[in-house]
Amino acid sequence: MANSNKDQNTPSEHEFVFGKKNYLFMLIGIGVIALGFILMTGGGSDDPNVFNPALYSFRRIRLAPTLVLIGFGIEVYAILRKN
């Protein structure tokens, strides 16, 4: 008798937590975050006694962190979006 009650509560098909568009937005968000981190790389110097001003370029200080924050915003939207 307990077995029949258990069968009624289990879904017959496997369902994903999010819809197809949610996963698409998640992938886009991950891509934007990855692009932001890629743009942050570089700017170092081989010689520790030589300063490289490219470390403080617009790309590394403004653009890349902005892309990372936008990517996290896309991820939050993808999670909170209803089907």
What does this structure look like?
The chain has 3 helices and no strands. The model has no long low-confidence stretch (mean pLDDT 87). Helix 2 runs antiparallel to helix 3. It has 83 residues and is mostly helical. It has one domain.
Entry summary:
The chain has 83 residues and is mainly α. It has helices at 2-9, 20-40, 58-80.
Order of helices and strands: HHH
Which value, in Å, is the CA radius of gyration?
A: 22 Å
Tell how many strands the DSSP assignment holds.
0
Strand content is under 5%
Beginning-to-end CA distance, first to last residue: 36 Å
What is the overall pLDDT average? Answer: 87
Number of helices: 3
Low-confidence stretches: none
Task: Summarize the biggest pleated sheet.
Answer: none
The number of distinct structural domains comes to 1
What best-fitting shape do the alpha-carbon axes yield? elongated
| DSSP helix fraction | 55-70%
- Quaternary structure state of the chains depicted: single chain
Could you say which structural class the secondary elements and strand pairing correspond to?
Answer: mainly alpha
